Amino acid sequence: MKHLTIALWLLIAIQVKAQSSFNSEDNTVTRADLETNYYKKDSTANAIVLYEFGNSYVDNKTFKLVTEIKKKVKILNRSAFDKATIEEQLYREKNKGERMYDISATTYNLENGRITSIFLNDKNIFEEKYNDHYDIVKFTLPNIKEGSVITYSYKLSSPYFFKYKEWKFQDDIPKLHSEYHTSIPANWEYNIKLVGYKKLFKNESKLKKRCLEGGNGAYSDCTDAIYIMKDISAFIEEDYMTTKENYLSRIDYELKVFKSFDGRTENITKSWKTTDSEIKSMPEVGRQLGKSSMLKDLIGDGIKNEPDVLKKAIAIYKYVQDNYTWNGKYGIFKDVSVKDLIKNKSGKVSEINILLHNLLDEYGIEVMPVLLSTRDNGFPTKIYPVISDFNYLIVQATVDNKTYLLDATDGYLSFGEIPFRCLNHYGRLMDFDKGSYYIDIQPEKTSTIIYKTELSLDENETLAGTIDSRSTGYHALPPKKSYFSNKQDYLKNFEKIYPNITFLDHRVATEDKTDFDFLETFDVEYHVDNIGGNLYINPFLFKFFTENPFKLQERTYPIDFGYKDAFLCNLKLNYGEDYEVVESPVDVNYPLPNNKGSIILSSKIQDNSVLLYFKFNFNDSLYGPEYYDYLKKYLGKIVDIQKNTLIVLKKK
């Protein structure tokens, strides 16, 4: 009996292991791979990469960069059937291009207890022209079902060495094992960059002698490297982030130096000194700057003769805002013409802001162009100049030793503000005399939303009063754009959002759409819920957040708000002498670690009134992923306070 019990326990243990473990050691499909249909670490996953392997090297015969790829994927449910379609974009020029070959793919299923396999037919591999420079090779594995495991492999060859084959460890589904081998001859020297916040499980390199033969006795040694990551969480995009390319865990390469077998050396990566000189001589940038001949009679004498330098700068800025329309295009290094902008009254970002630069410069204001990359374009490489990383141009003006970043493409921005799309941490200030350098792109002022509410309860159990609203900075832009573009329909939007509130009147104190503040007042009333003789009042008529934007189990990239902000609600609720307070809000003091923010809720009863104070803030614009759980709880607390805080009254 004792031996039988042990045998039963062993059998159960084997079955449990089979039901809970995948083979992530190689591309071999095991029974456990097919039987296991749940990933404990991520219950939301629709599929999992069980194993992937890449190997890149220079072929000794063709001198092309070859990459071998193998991959094994578990399909957990129907939502991941698209993972069975594999697609590669191949770059080509007139007489040469990239190639994909040796394609092999198999679908495995468990049917009636048996493992079945179906191979990809070569007839189902398709190649199509995508555009003038790219072709697409695509294939879909057959007989995909929930629970299927697919494996596929292929090779890529490329004659292009400017970028060594990058390797993406992270994707939109979890990966158990991702491994990349590289063999880089000493002829090619690359800047190698590990992007993202995930750490390598293995990072080893060694020297391999005579890996590449160049003929006539010439040869090259290679650096062979192995990179491995394990248990890689899925990259899921969420609010408050820049482009995922900034954070997706991968290894990236940029060619720095090429040494030919005959001894010639070509420096591919240039210095900023050289790049500055090239940009200065470009017809699209440097030659457009400072052109004064086309500025004649553009602005009136009132602006020209303004003695206050700051007022003059603001007037010039508003002139460009009001008279030239952005056509929605970025573009710095191609087809830029300030002359065409002046003629057509519409143009690219760079054209509008170069005109702004030239006008400020013409009338004695110190000004320099700033190159940057927008939030959806990715961070520019800092360690060496790659001008293609930049897609946007703004202006820095200096008045009385204070600097202002300016962008005249948005008619609602105040002087010193730039669009939210530009808040991508840093930009390159192009000082063509002393040399360019990076500057921080960080709003100086905190953006705020403040509600000051005073309500009184009447004998009909109706609350009536006013809400004074003040929005500043980036929080002021949406209401300003909504109000000044369509004043007639502005209030209707509030009536849709708050159907239980009756809006009696609405007044706006802000007169200029470029003001930093937007001030408005609402006259409101609404009927209070009477349940069992008690009046239940939620004091937050206007809510800052209606739901928690953070919902992921894990976030591996920063929370990037773009700017610092703060929120404040002051309420005075007059309930008169006929009522008394049964329940008032409980005080809250809830901080983020390291003084990164705090929530304060307090209330008191005074002179037949409930006085409530609610404030929370974000003291940083950027929080590392280690703050995600804290911020998730923080926002959850804010939503809960606004949703569930009650003042309960009853008649005396």
Low-confidence stretches: 1-19
Our count of helices gives: 10
| Relative helix content | 10-25%
Number of E-type strands: 36
Report the top-level CATH class of the largest domain: Mainly Beta
Query: What is the count of distinct domains?
Result: 3
The description of the largest β-sheet is: 8 strands, mixed
Task: State the end-to-end distance.
Answer: 77 Å
Measured by DSSP, the beta-strand proportion falls in 35-45%
The overall average pLDDT, rounded, is 93
Helix/strand structural class: alpha+beta
Instruction: Please name the CATH topology of the largest domain.
Output: Immunoglobulin-like
Q: Order the strands across the largest sheet as they lie in space.
A: 5-4-8-2-1-10-13-12
General shape: flat
- CATH architectural label of the largest domain: Sandwich
Roughly how many Å is the radius of gyration?
Answer: 32 Å
